[in-house]
Specification:
Largest interface: A-B, 21 and 22 residues
CATH topology of chain B: Immunoglobulin-like
CATH superfamily of chain A: Immunoglobulins
CATH superfamily of chain B: Immunoglobulins
CATH class of chain B: Mainly Beta
Number of helices of chain B: 0
Distance between the termini of chain A: 37 Å
Structural class of chain A: mainly beta
Number of strands of chain B: 11
Low-confidence stretches of chain A: none
Strand content of chain B: over 45%
Order of helices and strands of chain A: EEEEEEEEEEE
Largest sheet of chain B: 7 strands, mixed
Number of domains of chain A: 1
Shape of chain B: globular
Strand content of chain A: over 45%
Helix content of chain B: under 10%
Oligomer: heterodimer
CATH architecture of chain B: Sandwich
Number of helices of chain A: 0
CATH class of chain A: Mainly Beta
Number of domains of chain B: 1
Number of strands of chain A: 11
Order of helices and strands of chain B: EEEEEEEEEEE
Shape of chain A: globular
Chain lengths: 114, 113
Amino acid sequence: QKEVEQDPGPLSVPEGAIVSLNCTYSNSAFQYFMWYRQYSRKGPELLMYTYSSGNKEDGRFTAQVDKSSKYISLFIRDSQPSDSATYLCAMGRNDAGNNRKLIWGLGTSLAVNP
Amino acid sequence: DAGITQSPRYKITETGRQVTLMCHQTWSHSYMFWYRQDLGHGLRLIYYSAAADITDKGEVPDGYVVSRSKTENFPLTLESATRSQTSVYFCASKASGVTGELFFGEGSRLTVL
């Protein structure tokens, strides 16, 4: 079993839809969680970063962490065609020797149709 | 230009040839990383470096060599390229003390024939 599981999709939604992207993980030692967005033929870029359980909101994006269930989500409200990209979850441990090693999901491909 | 740049962006080579992918960052970040990204495998860490002259293996280091004589440069060399090394390679950097956030280059797409 992989440490991080992420459904690769593809996911196709109409413009304006609410999108939910999810990752599950098995290692309870993970302490911080991130979502990266990757446009076609580009490098990933950080979208959201959370340390604790609960919700973090940034504009149309909300990151949710449930450590008890080992489950993280990214919600996109009022989705736009410009949100079409691959979304990768990543997580890591904040202790010596491990703070440089992120564990990545495979990424979910999202298409938002006008 | 500020940021992290990779070269070449595209490279086609033959089996057995040596290839070097270059990575340069202008932020003076301590940490630098090389990943490869393949369908079905996602991002896999090849090598990383915590500072100049300090490098360490990642998840898939076999067949690759790195060096870091200067903080801003982190070249990745495939000493004898194989078809299985056909991939998209990403260089990334991270500031010391800032947990987790990586800044990626635009990638180098390598095809080994």
